[in-house]
Amino acid sequence: MNIKLFSKKWTRLLGLAAFIVTGGGLILSTAINQENLYKTEILIIIGCFFGISLFDHYKKLILDKIKVKINKRSLYIFICSFVGVTLTWFINHQMGYGAVIANGLVGVMAAIFLPNDLAGITYTSSFVGMSSLAVIPSLAVATLGSIIVWLVFLTTAEIYAGIGGKGGTTAALSTIITKIISSIFG
Questions:
Q1: What is the pLDDT of residue 125?
Q2: Is the per-residue pLDDT at 128 higher than 90?
Q3: Which of 58, 100, 111, 169 is deepest in the core (most CB within 10 A)?
Q4: Rounded CA gap, 37 and 180, in Å?
Q5: Phi, psi (rounded to 5 degrees) for 67
């Protein structure tokens, strides 16, 4: 089944803009709050690499005009996102094992039972489930977080594919969006 949400060009631009705001905001807020000058300089250097890579990727985005497809693959991504977020949240908060152990258990199970790409999606999604109760207060909000991380995966699949840091940025962006939505309706 093909569902045209937006053209691929616009969904990729939207996903890229979300990554820019998330990464740039984290770098900027950390640089502002640092008291040591050398740490701020390191963050500025990282920010320069971030900006250069975004510029390089942005040139490619203008050229594409392909439909976004909802297919069996996107269903697998949804299931992995759902399991990653909710299972990690449950192990973390309901069972009381803590965020690191919950994330590790979900990551190891995903690595054992799933192909590499789906294991990576499940592990990245589990970062959202590591959030504190102040950020994701219930399993229902964790379910919302799994839907958000699924949508972020679908819209940003080709952005920074294979480059380190995308998983953490995806999880951070999804957590921020989930927190905003839950605070609006909660």
A1: 93
A2: yes
A3: 169
A4: 32
A5: -75, 150
Helices (H), the chain: 8-33, 37-61, 72-89, 99-113, 116-129, 139-155, 166-185
pLDDT higher than 50, residue 110: yes
Cα-trace Rg, the chain: 17
d(CA 122, CA 127): 9
Distance CA 22, CA 174 (A): 10
Q: Which two tokens stand for residue 149?
A: 């991380």
Burial 24-50 (b: 16+ CB within 10 A, else e): eebbeeebeeeeeeeeeeebeeebeeb
Distance, CA of 93 to CA of 111 (rounded, Å): 23
Tell me the sheet residues that pair with 7.
Answer: 67
Task: Grade residue 66 by pLDDT with cuts at 50, 70 and 90.
Answer: very low
Among 135, 140, 123, residue whose Cα is nearest residue 183: 135
Which residues are CB-neighbours of 12 under 8 A, at least 6 positions away?
61, 64, 155, 156, 158, 159
- E strand residue ranges, the chain: none
The model carries a pTM of 0.65
Contacts of residues 49-52 at CB distance under 8 Å and 24 or more positions apart, as own/partner, are 50/23, 50/24
What pLDDT is recorded for position 63? 46
The answer to whether 156 touches 6, Cβ cutoff 8 Å, is no
